[in-house]
Structure formats: C-alpha cells, structure tokens
Design goal:
About 30% of the residues lie in helices and about 25% in strands. The protein is an alpha+beta fold. The strands form 3 sheets. It has an 8-stranded mixed β-sheet with strand order 6-10-11-16-15-14-13-12, with helices on both faces. The structure holds aspartyl-adenosine-5'-monophosphate. Aspartyl-adenosine-5'-monophosphate binds next to β11, β15, β16 and α11. The site of aspartyl-adenosine-5'-monophosphate has 23 residues, from β11, β15, β16 and α11.
Length: about 450
C-alpha cells in the first residue's frame, strides 16, 4: 500500500466526521452488487455498515473485486463522500485500494433462517449476525457492572480449580475424567472452594467461571458446561442478607445494561429493559406450595417445585406484586444440599433460597452450616461418605465465620434480559449431551 494512504483504522460509525477525507476500513463484505460501470459493496464492521463504490474504469480494482465473495474479510481504502441519496447513513466511500484478507467460500454454510442448531454448527458465521454481536456486548457490560459492584463492596476474585479429586455437588451429575493413574471430576460448582476462601479469612469472594454438569437434560435452559457466577459472603446474620445483596447487584447490573444497550436491545430483541425495583418479593416455600395447590397445580414432590410449577407461581406472583423477580425461601432440608444451614426453630427447613426471573430459576443460594460438628451430622444424615468429603470438612475445623452465598447462571440471566427462548442463543458454543462440537 502506498505511503500516502492512511494507516490507522476508521470505524464506520465515525465516517460522518471524515467527509472529504481518505479512510481505511476493516470489515466483512455483506453484499456485492454489480452494475455495468459500477460495483457497490456493503462493508460491515462492529459499529455499522457503509456502501463502498467502485468505478469499473479502474481495471486493477475491478480485477481485485471480481474475486470478492459475500462475507469475505477485507481492508478498504477510499474517500468519504456525502451522498444524501444513499440510505446507509447518507454517505459512501469511493474505493481506491482493497485488500481481500480472508476470501469466503462462494457458498455460505448457513443463512439467517437456517435455525439455531445450524447456527451453532457454523458459529464463525452466525456470530456475525447483529443480534449475536449484541448478545456478547451485553454479556461484557453485565459482567463489568457486576465486577464494579463487587469491587465497590470489597469483594475479591478467586479462580478455583475445575479439576477435583471429589464431587462438588451431588455425585450423580459429575463428569469423571482420566487423570494420570487416577480419576478426577470436573467441578460442578466452585462451592467448596468459595467456602474455603471464607474460612481463609477472605470475607467476600466472587468467581465467574465454567461449571460442568453431567445431566442428561434436553431443555432450553440446561447446558452440560455453563458459566456460573458465584459469590460467598462472610459474617452474615441470615439468608435475607444474601438476598438483599443479590437484588442490589442485579438492579445495578440490569440498570447498567439498560443505560448502555437499551435502545439497541429494543430494536433487535423487541425488549424494553427496566431496572427492577427493590426489594424483590419473597415467599416462603410452604406458602408458595399452598398458592400453587390453590391454583390447581399440585407439585409431584412435597419438598421441591418442578419447572412448570415455578412458571405458574411466578406468573401468579407477578400479577399480585407487579414484579418480574421472585425469591422462594426456606426450602425443606430434604431437597437441598447437605451444607445448607437449617433454621433453628424448624430444623426440617433450610436457610436456602432460589430466585426466579419470569418463571425461570436463575439462582440458588443459602446460608451455609459453618459448624464442623453439625456439618458432619448433616452429611451423615444424608448417608454421604465422610471420606469423600474429608477435604471439605477440614475447611471448618480451624474456625470458620458464619457465611453464605449463591450461584447464578450467566446464560439464564441473558435469556431473560434479551427474552430469548433458548440458552443456546446466548452461549458462545453450546455443550449438551448430544453436542461436543465444534
Ligand atoms: P445450582 O445447582 O442451583 O446451585 O446452580 C446455580 C445456578 O446455575 C445455573 N445452572 C445452570 N445453567 C445452565 N445449565 C445448567 N445445567 C445449569 N445448572 C445450574 C442456574 C442455577 O440457579 N452451589 C450452588 C450455588 C450456591 O448455593 O452458591 C449451585 O451450584 O441459574
């Protein structure tokens, strides 16, 4: 490229500032339209689209562009010209030089209407769709807002190992992997290690990382590998403190997403994002069950709700309270993890909670049992082997503060934020019992 050509990149969104100037653009060729004397290419970069105009009088440029196929990656140099008749931003770029850096095969593997499964098969193409670009912009903003909130409240970030010598939740949903001459398990949650950090005096910790579940679930909300957002907080009085923290965190994060991406989300997903009001409604499990039964839905289990029950309950409570979120608290001990703290006056109930957002569970949390002797008793009551829990139980032998925390599914939050039907629309690459590729 000659020295006189600009070397710095200009983004499409900045082009109005450069009318009459030479610019260098990087992007994909969205469409190519050939006329007898002219060629029009729409170039797309992450900030927008612009029409590139090529006069066929220039035979070298014509030859270069003859090879161009849709979705090829290219670098274009040209002059920005005001063109009020052009629908795309009222300007165009007259082509002076082009470099086709990545020529696309003439036949693209998918189209917009190919369906989600095909989109995932060819993610390098479907990720280019504007809605998909927005998903990951929103995800970035959401995580940034959460990190800012955690920082403001004195949290530290941890990165706990995903290879474990034992199970981190229940043994039935764990992936076993060969680990030299023994077997390792992929972490189902950072549960044990976030509690260890509290025992280690870290007081408030968070982790955003992968969690693995060998669940043969074929639903639109389950993945075998998902991103888990975990928190653990020391020196709490009860689980209400945890819920109070979570609702403020979510209100801040959702408010930030609304501020940064509100109009674009409205345009591409038809969803108006309004930050939730505080406090979120809360209902105890026993009361929630009564409500469900009165609505004619009798849950199959006495100590837990099915997904349909959660949906019906959520809908009913939203009509009553005008709120999209609902905490269900004080679940029966028999349906919760052995490490949930029991209520003092009702040891058959826990200080545990779930958070539903428009009928979908996005969080499980609880105050934990931090007293070694009681924790051992609760494990034994469940028939759990103390041997396999020995490392975990050690965490509580040398003085551990009262504490609790929660885990949120990143994909599920995005599903609700953008109102999409499947977690796979908001996941970079899906992992299910039937999908391990690409
Ligand atoms: P739980 O198993 O409920 O709790 O998981 C916490 C949250 O993670 C999300 N989630 C999933 N997302 C996608 N695919 C899955 N297969 C999947 N499984 C769970 C959900 C869920 O609410 N250790 C506890 C948390 C805690 O008490 O701190 C735990 O893992 O949004």
């Amino acid at each position: 490229m000659s020295d006189s050509l600009p070397s710095a990149r200009t983004l499409v969104s900045d082009l109005p500032l450069h009318i009459g100037q030479r610019v260098r653009l990087y992007g994909f060729a969205e469409t190519i339209r050939d006329q007898k004397r002219m060629r029009f290419v729409v170039l797309r970069d992450p900030t927008g689209k612009v029409q590139i105009t090529q006069s066929k009088d220039d035979s070298a440029l014509t030859a270069a562009l003859d090879a161009l196929t849709p979705e090829s990656a290219m670098i274009v140099t040209g002059t920005v010209v005001a063109a009020p008749a052009v629908k795309l931003g009222g300007l165009e770029v007259t082509l002076e030089a082009v470099e086709i850096c990545g020529l696309a095969d003439a036949q693209l593997p998918i189209a917009r209407d190919s369906g989600l499964d095909k989109w995932i098969d060819h993610r390098q193409v479907s990720l280019r769709y504007p809605e998909q670009q927005l998903v990951f912009a929103v995800q970035t903003t959401l995580e940034e807002a959460m990190r800012a909130f955690w920082k403001q409240h004195g949290f530290r970030e941890i990165h706990s190992p995903k290879l474990m010598g034992t199970f981190s939740e229940s043994g039935s949903e764990v992936f076993a992997v060969k680990y030299f001459d023994t077997t390792a398990f992929l972490a189902q949650s950072p549960q044990f290690y976030k509690q260890m950090a509290i025992a280690g005096g870290m007081e408030k910790v968070f982790e955003v990382g992968p969690a693995f579940r060998a669940e043969p679930s074929f639903t639109s909300r389950h993945e075998t590998e998902f991103t888990s957002i975990d928190m653990e907080i020391g020196w709490i009085e009860d689980h209400y403190e945890l819920m109070d923290f979570e609702e403020r965190l979510l209100a801040h994060a959702i408010g930030t997403v609304a501020e940064v991406h509100g109009p674009e989300i409205e345009a591409l997903f038809g969803m108006t994002i309004t930050p939730p009001t505080l406090p979120f409604p809360k209902v105890a499990f026993a009361e929630a069950r009564k409500i469900l039964v009165s609505l004619g839905h009798v849950p199959a289990r006495r100590d837990d709700f099915d997904a349909e029950g959660e949906r019906i309950l959520s809908e009913h409570m939203a009509a009553e309270t005008g709120h999209e979120f609902l905490f269900i608290t004080d679940y029966p001990a028999s349906s919760r993890a052995f490490y949930h703290m029991r209520r003092k006056e009702r040891p058959d109930l826990t200080r545990g909670f779930d958070l539903l957002w428009r009928g979908l569970e996005i969080t499980t949390g609880a105050q934990r049992e931090h007293r070694h002797d009681r924790l051992v008793a609760q494990a034994l009551e469940r028939g759990l082997g103390l041997e396999s829990l020995s490392d975990y139980l050690e965490f509580f032998r040398f003085g551990c503060p009262p504490h609790g925390g929660m885990g949120l599914g990143l994909g599920r939050i995005l599903m609700r934020l953008l109102n999409v039907a499947s977690i796979r629309e908001v996941t970079l690459l899906s992992r299910t019992p039937k999908r391990l590729r690409p």
